[in-house]
Design brief:
With 370 residues, the protein is of the alpha/beta class. It has twelve helices and 15 strands.
Length: 370
């Protein structure tokens, strides 16, 4: 199979979908890999590194025109949409539930779209999303504390405090991968940390594995509002597979938060868990509403590509190899987790959460896979 790796063009996205080691594995299996020249530069990977692994560096036009399977990091951008063909398979993060425009564009293209974020095991584990969530959770604390500084626009709060002065309070909405990762970093910085979730078993687990400066709380509306009044840094890490994220903090709730505090919405790819959230970029990461700074960068791991590119390829390479070896229909028949990643097949929407998010017609996946 001919596999294409385009250069990411989303603003400040420095990751690349495959490292040379992954390319080498595919080439050894008899596949051809076309990589757009310069695609790995942001991750410190040169065209010569890819050539040594057996890839062929090509132009933008060639990588799209000559490839049957396109492997990316982020969703296709509007300028890439005209390049997508009916007979292509796209394997990348899509987050369709947050964008009806993107969903409609991919339906029109007739391509088959497999979304990293909805690949899931029977137990509900998301093997591709998880490493990016781990990175985003860690970054949420690091970036949030930077913008709490007066020079960053915040209130001037040192999150760890000093002897005789209380440390800052980090409130985390959601006790999943993002929340746990954020709590590890925040607690390591000696902040006071509170995690809220509605899954009591998950809260029991977090109580057992996290340090004593982390407490847990059931995520009732009253408890969320109380924590907002105490928080210096609020991290939104709620996730629903394939669905738009619910708003846990309304715009009017912002008035409860102390001026100069920071909200970090890690769920912004899926629409965000704060009503006042809107996507930002690494170039202009924050904005202020009701005296509260909002950090809503939609591709947080893109700022640490030397880490996140390798973590992403570790999670995707087995599935990329399976798709290349067997083709879509045989691959998804063998792997239920990969089948859950199917969102669009030949211009048909087959993911129920996306269809529900946009009020679109759902086609049963069984009708299309024989």
């Amino acid at each position: 199979m001919r596999i294409g790796v385009p250069k990411e063009i989303k603003p400040q996205e420095h990751r690349v979908a495959l490292i040379p080691g992954g390319v080498g594995r595919l080439v050894e299996s008899g596949h051809e890999v076309r990589i757009e020249s310069g695609a790995g530069d942001g991750s410190g990977l040169s065209d010569s590194d890819y050539k040594k692994a057996g890839a062929v560096p090509v132009s933008t036009d060639e990588v799209w025109a000559e490839s049957e399977l396109i492997v990316k990091v982020k969703e296709p951008q509007p300028e890439e949409w005209p390049r997508i063909r009916k007979d292509q398979v796209l394997f990348t993060f899509f987050h369709f539930a947050s964008s009806k425009t993107l969903t409609e564009a991919m339906l029109r293209s007739g391509a088959t779209c497999i979304a990293y974020e909805t690949v899931a095991t029977d137990e509900g584990f998301h093997p591709i999303l998880t490493p990016m969530s781990e990175i985003a959770g860690r970054l949420a604390v690091l970036h949030g504390t930077r913008f709490l500084e007066k020079t960053g626009g915040g209130k001037g709060q040192l999150i760890c405090g000093v002897p005789g002065v209380r440390s800052g309070h980090v409130v985390i909405l959601g006790g999943g991968t993002v929340g746990e990762s954020a709590a590890k970093v925040a607690s390591g910085l000696e902040a006071r940390v509170t995690i809220l979730d509605i899954d009591l078993e998950r809260l029991r687990y977090l109580e057992d594995v996290l340090p004593m400066n982390v407490s847990t709380l059931y995520a009732s509306k009253d408890n969320i509002l109380q924590m907002l009044e105490q928080a210096d840094l609020v991290i939104g890490g709620v996730h629903r597979s394939g669905s738009r994220t619910p708003h846990l903090v309304s715009r009017k709730d912002l008035k409860r938060i102390k001026p100069g505090s920071v909200l970090v919405d890690v769920a912004i790819d899926q629409g965000g868990c704060f009503e006042s959230s809107r996507p930002t970029t690494h170039a202009e990461p924050v904005y202020e509403e009701e005296g509260v700074l909002h950090y809503c960068v939609a591709n947080m791991p893109g700022c640490v590509p030397r880490t996140s590119t390798y973590a992403l390829t570790n999670a995707t390479i087995d599935l990329v190899a399976l798709l290349a070896d067997r083709g879509v229909e045989r691959a998804v028949s063998q792997r239920a987790d990969l089948q859950r990643g199917l969102n669009i097949i030949d211009g048909n929407l087959v993911h129920s959460a996306v269809a529900q998010a946009h009020g679109m017609r759902l086609v049963p996946i069984e009708d299309l896979l024989k």
